[in-house]
């Protein structure tokens, strides 16, 4: 069963390891699609209800056995650059000529990149020591600026991939439940959050766009498809 979803293969990894899970091939049937949707909705709810994406992903990694060592680490992508999204200066409360810096960090569990965070921040609202640490280390932004006691305001949370078509819950149960041997194509990014970080005085310091990869679905154990 296919719903016309142009996509990329599941595993978005760093270097292969004999001690890490291999590529999980989800089968293209209603059972797999319902399971994938349930997992994405569960992860989305957890991310929205907890302040730390790193700790949420670490819990997710351990619960679903994504790696032997369920520990999530941040890896800054040096030299990365991206223009400000439309409307970002208004969201950050800055003028046309105010400086904005860009930082990209990947959150990695084992050999799997689970998310990529694009971060545009206002250096004039941070201390010199904070700016130096952001420029020279891999330390996550939130940890660097934690002394500001910032809060996070979520602007949007969007599923980038819909495993099931609109209105599927009102349709009869398909006859192909868990009977396909065809691999399910899943796009490279499946979920995206957009948020602003603000000081207690409501001064925006950062706009962050977090794109979660298909590796959040790279569960170690898959149930085999039943032959027709």
From TrEMBL:
Signal sequence extent: 1-18
InterPro entries membership? Chorismate_lyase_/UTRA_dom_sf (IPR028978)
Gene3D superfamilies, alphabetized: Chorismate lyase-like (3.40.1410.10)
Q: Which UniProt keywords are listed?
A: Signal
SUPFAM superfamilies, A to Z: Chorismate lyase-like
Its domain of life reads Bacteria
Q: What is this protein called?
A: Chorismate lyase
- Source organism: Dyella terrae
């Amino acid at each position: 069963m296919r719903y016309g979803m142009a996509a990329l293969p599941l595993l978005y990894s760093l270097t292969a390891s004999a001690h890490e899970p291999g590529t999980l091939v989800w089968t293209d049937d209603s059972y797999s699609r319902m399971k994938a949707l349930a997992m994405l909705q569960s992860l989305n709810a957890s991310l929205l209800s907890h302040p730390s994406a790193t700790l949420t992903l670490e819990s997710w990694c351990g619960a679903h056995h994504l790696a032997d060592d369920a520990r999530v680490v941040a890896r800054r992508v040096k030299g990365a650059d991206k223009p400000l999204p439309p409307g970002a200066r208004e969201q950050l409360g800055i003028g046309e000529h105010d400086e904005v810096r860009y930082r990209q960090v990947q959150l990695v569990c084992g050999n799997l990149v689970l998310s990529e965070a694009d971060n545009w921040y206002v250096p004039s609202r941070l201390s010199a020591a904070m700016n130096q640490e952001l420029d020279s280390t891999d330390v996550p932004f939130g940890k660097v600026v934690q002394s500001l006691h910032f809060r996070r305001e979520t602007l949007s949370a969007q599923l980038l991939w819909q495993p099931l078509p609109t209105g599927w819950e009102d349709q009869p149960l398909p006859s192909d439940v868990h009977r396909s041997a065809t691999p399910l194509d899943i796009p490279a990014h499946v979920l995206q959050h957009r948020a602003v970080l603000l000081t207690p005085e409501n001064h925006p310091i950062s706009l962050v766009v977090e794109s979660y990869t298909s590796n959040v679905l790279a569960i170690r154990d898959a149930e085999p498809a039943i032959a027709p």
